[in-house]
Design a protein that fits this description.
239 residues; alpha/beta; Glutaredoxin; 2 domains; five-stranded mixed β-sheet; two-stranded antiparallel ribbon; 6 helices; globular
């Protein structure tokens, strides 16, 4: 009788162990599925509307698209530059367009190749979308002439009229970068066009020339978020 009782208890312990193991596996599976679901939401819908930015600290301002406050908010000023085809590129080129912009130079051995690679990813992602354009300003316009930019564009498989590489007046380019796009991170440091402009930042600009995001052009995760934010921006009711 004692032996039978011991066997009975051992069998029940074994059954309980198997039940507990099954419960653990089910719980773990549910947690995994839930985690995947949450991650998907974060990747595709971080926010319903993007913030607006108007100065170098990039403090977000949450405005209502189409409101009077939005209309009076900081915008990228008028500009006139020349692209790799020798065509005049101005703010009118980007009317009713979303665009991503950065600052580079063709002989850059450091961060620029990676930035160009990531801009190429954006070009590929939105290749068929005529509402999305790319704009890269040369910070060495005295070297990056139209022929130089065209050669660079061909080497990097840049699509003309989708991605504009621009050269022009150095003072205008540096003023745009520092005082209107706020691409540099040296807050409080006074600079002029004689001080070299070098930054890895990408800026997201909406159809009304408002800054809607800043991203590290070297960071894969940041580029993924930029793609998500472009789609969010496209879905805004004012677009």
């Amino acid at each position: 009788m004692v032996l039978d009782a011991q066997i009975y208890v051992m069998n029940w312990k074994k059954k309980l162990y198997n039940i507990n193991k099954m419960v653990y596996l089910i719980v773990a599976l549910l947690v995994f599925i839930s985690g995947c679901k949450d991650y998907k939401v974060e990747e595709t819908s971080r926010v319903e509307s993007l913030p607006y930015f108007n100065e170098a600290t990039f403090t977000p301002h949450w405005l209502t698209p189409g409101s009077q406050e939005e209309k009076e908010f900081h915008v990228i000023p008028d500009f006139t530059l020349v692209n790799q085809l020798g065509d005049t590129i101005s703010n009118k080129t980007f009317e009713n367009k979303i665009y991503i912009t950065d600052f580079f130079f063709t002989t850059c051995p450091g961060i620029c190749p990676k930035m160009t690679e990531n801009m190429n990813k954006l070009q590929k992602e939105f290749k068929a979308d005529s509402t999305i354009l790319l704009l890269s300003h040369s910070v060495t316009p005295e070297h990056d002439s139209v022929p130089v930019l065209l050669k660079y564009a061909k080497e990097k498989e840049i699509i003309d009229n989708k991605w504009h590489l621009v050269t022009g007046d150095r003072k205008q380019i540096y003023d745009l970068g520092r005082n209107h796009y706020f691409v540099e991170e040296d807050l409080g440091v006074e600079k002029d066009e004689e001080d070299f402009l070098h930054t890895e930042n990408f800026l997201l600009i909406d159809k009304n020339r408002h800054i809607r995001g800043i991203y590290n052009g070297l960071n894969r995760t940041s580029i993924k978020q930029l793609i998500v934010d472009i789609n969010t921006l496209k879905s805004e009711t004012n677009f």
